[in-house]
Amino acid sequence: MGTALVVSESSARRYALRDPDVRLMLQVRDDDAAAFEELVLRYQARLVTVLEHLVGNRDQAEDLTQDVFLRVYRARKRYVAGAKFSTWLYTIANNVASNAIRSRMRHPEVTLQPRDSGPMGARPLDVMLQASSGQMPARQLDKAEMREIVRLALEALSERQRMAVLLNKFENMSYADIGETMGLTPQAVKSLLSRARGNLREVLQPYFQHGERPTIEGHNPGSV
Amino acid sequence: MSQTPDNADLSMEEQLVAYLDGELEAEEARRIEELLSNNPQLRQTLQQLDHTWELLDELDTQEVAENFTQTTLEMVAVAAADDVRQSLAEAPRRRRRRWALVGGSLLAAGLVGFLAVIFLLPNRNPNRQLVEDLPLLLEVEQYRQIDDFHLLQMLREEGLFVEEDVDQAEQEVDAAQEDGSGR
What we know:
The structure holds 2 protein chains of 2 kinds. Chain A is mainly alpha-helical. Chain A contains 10 helices and no strands. Chain B folds into 3 domains: 8-56, no CATH class; 78-121; 133-174. The longest helix of chain B has 55 residues, at 66-120.
């Protein structure tokens, strides 16, 4: 085999036994198309979820998800079995998302496009107005509004805080795995998550205690 | 270790979050539980952190359209085919480059070997030896008439050949003087 393995064969076998996705990826490395399809099926929705919350756009999240899978395929021969396949996958996803966000910052006109996939559709304020005029059940509004508030609070976090929160919340990753994915020490992840959750509390708590809408503009989303 | 109140709050919040995430060692977790049992404000902070974390469950988890998998796989297949095509297109160029590299290396090795032979083993060159022996070869017939090398050596030490040299030098001086007066 031409691939230079960093871990021993016995370690790779152990990882493959523990994590079925590692096993699948090793099959992908050996050009097994069915294994690749299985990985796509297992991770596509999870990736779209995380990437959508990261970049704030559903269409872009789907494009980025496909880009991630393309990179996985192209990197298959260089894949080295690690303890968890998901940390490797989300490392790629993190890089892809960071590049997309940086690119968008360099070309700010892209941000002028209307958000097309928020919890309340293309125009959340319009939906709220429609609801308040009696065309939508109040219960649905509450749910949708709450979702929108939470989404805004998440968007107010810095990119790194958001990624750490999403990996922790949606992927149930430990601090060590998040650190591996984001290139940080577990201690740095601990601080990052603490600041993120402190920020979420600061933004969300007044709303849920006193009904005050969060002042996201006053918040500093760039702070890490 | 002394900490400012802000740092201490931050550090405590870090510990509370890590406690909620189950990331503390047993001993640290026990210490936090003890603090929580004695501090209502800390308990409130913990509850708020926990509550806002649970609110994230409200965020959408996405499902993808049925054809998404298909388009992903097709896109990867097209990209893979492009990679193969590109690799095949580049193969002759790569091969030419490899052959040029091999040829160049052989040429360089040959040149180095040749230079090493020339400079490190000069006596192996038969022509060089002939050039060095030329004065002897020109007079070899005369030398053959004298069998004894020691005799030649003795005659040289006696100054027999010196006289010849002096005569020859005098003749050269005379010739030079005649040449000068002739002008």
